[in-house]
Design goal:
Number of strands: 4
Shape: globular
Protein name: YkgJ family cysteine cluster protein
InterPro entries: Puta_zinc/iron-chelating_dom
Organism: Aliivibrio finisterrensis
Number of helices: 2
Distance between the termini: 20 Å
Order of helices and strands: EEEEHH
Strand content: 15-25%
Radius of gyration: 15 Å
């Protein structure tokens, strides 16, 4: 994988910089960037296998008793802001969300299955 460009923007919610939201925009040959993401991976079932501090209101229990991210009736993760498609608990997102790489093979498969790419 070759990265042609990295743009990192840090937004602060308060003047004391207590809460940071960092977003990276990677431009590469695939054309998949944060701007074209559409967050289709946020429709996958996410098991919570490590403690990252996910707030309780976003945790559900699956049929086998495991903790998973709560998904709403529309199938999307409850932590995703539907207007911006950004994670509202980014600093405390689950481990698997941290490991799921933009433009990875798995990302490309999800995008195709959701009709974003051909």
């Amino acid at each position: 994988m070759t990265i042609n460009k990295i743009d990192i923007t840090v937004h602060t919610d308060s003047p004391t910089s207590e809460s940071l939201l960092t977003s990276a925009s990677l431009t590469k040959d695939s054309g998949i960037t944060c701007d074209t993401c559409r967050a289709c991976c946020c429709r996958l079932e996410v098991m919570l296998i490590t403690d990252t501090g996910v707030p309780e209101e976003f945790i559900d229990t699956d049929d086998w008793g495991s903790d998973v991210m709560l998904r709403l009736d529309d199938g999307w993760c409850a932590a995703v802001d539907r207007d911006t498609l950004m994670c509202t608990i980014y600093e405390n997102r689950p481990w698997i969300c941290r490991e799921f790489e933009m433009a990875s093979y798995e990302c490309e498969v999800e995008r195709k299955e959701n009709g974003i790419d051909k």
